[in-house]
Amino acid sequence: MVVLVGVIVVVALVAVGGIVWNNVTNHPRPTRSTTTEPAPPLDTSWVPPKQEPPPGMPTPGASVPTKDPGQLTTKAMTVTGSGSLLLTYQRLAGNGTHVRFSCVGCTNDTWLIDQTRPWPLSGGALPDPAEYEYVLDSVNPTDTTTLYVRAAAKAKWTLTLTPFDSLDIARTGVVKGRDSRVVRVSSAGELRLACHNGPWVKTFFKAPGTAEYDVGLLLSDEVGGEWDISMPRTTDTMVAIISCRGDWTLTVP
Angle at the Cα of 177 (from 251 to 71), degrees rounded to 5? Predict the structure, then answer.
């Protein structure tokens, strides 16, 4: 059963000076400050076009083993394995899922593929299979998710699945990261992101009285710089996936 996440958010892409901004109000903003507002009700009969998998995306054969660790709880679930695996689990209701993958012996042909869509988590082979973070179950989630881990036969990997509500919260200070990382922050003021090479940010928040997380904003820039990122007006906590080609910092006031 597919659970619609609040409302269907129609994302409009507007390029301004090389910067692409999306937010759920569907209006471009003249500055690099954004707000994460709930969208007004839209026609729920609209179905987004199916996204075609990228060329070269592998599909699991009949010989790929399967594993079902069951229902996620309020605690993180850790799964270890070697080689390829089809992992099926049940998400914690009302939550997206933070995915942390680390591997020893993985090659540059390592993939994490959400078989529900199907779509690779990084848009292709993992850019850094030794350490990678992303999110699942964040938009129109299903009760059951199957993740295809495609790895070399001798590779040893660890996969940790954590519901959004169970992630540690950064309340003040500076969060430092490199490449992709998922963070949960709580603040009454604007956040400050510094990334000097190709930042990409997507945020999620749960408004009071709603059952699921909604998408807040999407930021993408081919160059780099610094941005003020506003918290949602309806809540002081949100989850963000931040990707940058190199080091980045997020200042939480």
Answer: 105
